[in-house]
Each structure stands twice: as C-alpha cells, then as structure tokens.
Specification:
Blueprint lengths: L1 E3 L2 E3 L21 E5 L7 E7 L2 E12 L12 E8 L14 H15 L10 E11 L4 H15 L10 E7 L2 E4 L3 H6 L2 E8 L4 E5 L2 E2 L3 H29 L8 E3 L4
Parallel strand pairs: 6-7
Antiparallel strand pairs: 1-2, 3-4, 3-13, 4-5, 5-7, 8-9, 8-10, 10-11, 10-12
Bound molecules: adenosine-5'-diphosphate.
Length: about 250
C-alpha cells in the first residue's frame, strides 16, 4: 500500500506488470451471459462480469407512455438504468439520481442508433437495466445485457453492441477497470462498439490521457469489445438450443 495524504492508495500495477487482481493490462474480467432468464419480459439477459451482476429486460415495440412522446415516423427508445440499494458496499440511496439519468440517456441514444426504429413508428422500445451488484463498468455491463435482451426480444438491429471500459492505472493503459482501478486510476473511458462497422455508439471519458494513450486505449477497447461480442453471440445461440438457457462464459485476455 502507498499513501497519498490521508487516503490509502492500493498498488494498482505490480513490478511484473500485473494488476491488483493479477490480470495483465489487456485482460478482461471473467464474463458470463445468460440470454432469456426472465419469462415476463419480451427479452432479457443476465450478465455476470467480474463482480458486476446486471439484469436487463426489454419490452416492445409497444404503445408509448406518456403518449406525447410518441413519434410518427419512428419508435422511441427509452432506457432506465438503476442501481439497487444493495448493489454497492454502502447502501446506495434508492431512486434515479443524476448519474443514473445520465447513464440511461447515453445508453438509450446508443441503442437508438442501432435499432431499425423507422420500422416501428408510434411505438416505444423500453429497456430496463437493473444493477444488482456493482464493481465498476456497470454501464458497459448494462449495454451488453440490454443488447442481448433486445436480440432476445427479436428487435431488429444492425448488430449486437459490446461495450467495455478502458483506462489508465500507473503508467499503463488497461482494459476493463475494476473498482479500485476506477477509484484510484487516472482515466476511465467506457465505450460501446458496433463490431461490423467499427462505429462507436457510446464513448465517455473521465480523467486524462495523452493523444497516444487515447489511441492505445481505443485499440485495446475495440479488441476487448470483439471478445465480448463472441460471448454475447454464444449466449444467444445457447438460448435457442433445445436444452434451454445456460450461461455463455469466458475469462480471457484481449
Ligand atoms: P460505471 O459503473 O459504469 O463504471 P461509474 O464510473 O460512475 O460507472 O462508477 C464506478 C463504480 O463506482 C460503480 O460501478 C460502483 O461500483 C461505484 N458506485 C457508483 N455509484 C455509487 C454510489 N452511489 N454508491 C456507491 N458506489 C457507487
């Protein structure tokens, strides 16, 4: 442990280049995805990724509520990202705070750009993301879960949308930050990708990266997204096998 002022800062990168949980800089946390675990929703998915546990449920296309939000030439995409009170170490105040509203908005916009919304005018496609356990990267886990849930609901999209956060700890650009790395690292860059075209549909950044580091972070994120994409597709394949859903899983280096 090093220390900065009164705050204890864990050693985030060892002399062997390994991270706090033993991962290499380009290694993802283990990820497992189950498609279709909820029977009441039109589509659903459960993602366990590191210590994150995130459920997504999708409804629609269905009637728009409230009515005045209806668009005559396309479906609207509404998203609600919510963190359960018990999802973090200290109880989180329940309800939609500013952070949840921001995350809901950027996720809705990401999906609006990949769903064929023109095919369903005057309807709503509603995406619910419930974070049951949080350990950094929950918006990315939410995008992954929602994407598989949308596919499970049969909503036509240009592609599935894998997502991952990249960041900087010590001098290193690293893939898929966990909580300590998010808290004590110097940059956090969540991103979501359309794999076929390489188009980014979500890109946010907190902290500082040089131009070179940003380029490296984006490259690392794209490779990470492509790995996650394979797990997402496998989850959907498993869903439609006759022996029912089971988690598609992988623990891997990008
Ligand atoms: P993301 O989960 O997408 O990385 P943030 O960077 O905002 O989003 O949050 C990082 C992590 O900080 C979360 O995954 C969670 O573990 C923790 N966190 C976020 N909000 C709260 C909160 N209100 N109380 C306690 N921990 C929180």
């Amino acid at each position: 442990m090093g220390s900065v002022g009164a705050k204890e800062v864990p050693v985030l990168l060892g002399p062997d280049g390994r991270r706090i949980d033993g991962r290499k800089v380009d290694e993802l946390r283990p990820i497992a995805i189950t498609a279709g675990p909820l029977h009441q929703a039109d589509g659903s998915a459960f993602v366990e990724w590191g210590q994150n546990k995130v459920m997504a449920a999708v409804y629609g296309p269905r009637e728009v509520h409230p009515r005045h939000l209806q668009e005559n030439n396309k479906a609207i995409v509404q998203c609600r990202y919510n963190m359960a009170a018990f999802s973090v170490d200290e109880r989180k105040r329940p309800g939609l705070d500013r952070r949840s509203q921001e995350i809901s908005k950027v996720i809705a916009e990401a999906f609006e750009s990949v769903i064929f919304v023109e095919e369903y005018p005057r309807t709503s496609i509603d995406v619910y993301i419930e974070v049951l356990q949080a350990n950094a990267g929950t918006r990315c886990a939410g995008v992954v879960a929602a994407s598989v849930a949308l596919a499970d609901a049969g909503i036509p999209m240009v592609d599935l949308v894998p997502a991952v956060a990249v960041g900087k700890v010590g001098d290193a650009v690293v893939l898929d930050l966990k909580k300590e790395e998010d808290n004590f690292g110097s940059a956090d860059l969540p991103m979501a990708l359309v794999p076929q075209s390489g188009r980014l549909v979500l890109l946010q950044m907190e902290g500082h990266l040089s131009r070179d580091e940003l380029a490296r972070a984006l490259d690392l994120g794209v490779v990470g997204c492509r790995k996650i994409y394979e797990v997402m597709k496998q989850a959907l394949r498993d869903r439609y096998r006759t022996d029912g859903p089971g988690p598609a899983a992988e623990g891997m280096a990008a």
